[in-house]
Specification:
The protein has a domain of 44 residues. It has a six-stranded mixed β-sheet, covered by helices on one side. It contains one helix and six strands. The longest helix has 15 residues. It is 19% helix and 35% strand.
């Protein structure tokens, strides 16, 4: 995650219209998931956080311009364009 930024008081720059937003997060079952924002039923379980991030990047590449929010083990999120 070379371009990852911890979300603190400053928010990332606005996205272009139609840009995809993807979330990588740990579920209550301790598995990692990828969700495209707005798609509540489209979660894809992954066996590891790294696998989930790679899956999100592939989805993002297929959708065009994107941003990924990635949950850290302590619950905070980082973002990456």
């Amino acid at each position: 995650m070379s371009n990852a930024n911890l979300i603190r008081g400053n928010l990332p720059r606005p996205l272009a219209d139609g840009a995809a937003v993807l979330w990588v997060f740990r579920g209550y079952d301790s598995r990692w998931y990828v969700r495209t924002e707005g798609d509540v039923m489209g979660e894809t379980p992954q066996s590891s956080r790294q696998e989930a991030v790679e899956s999100a990047r592939k989805k993002g590449d297929a959708l065009g311009y994107f941003r990924i929010y990635i949950q850290l083990r302590d619950g905070r999120f980082i973002w990456s364009d």
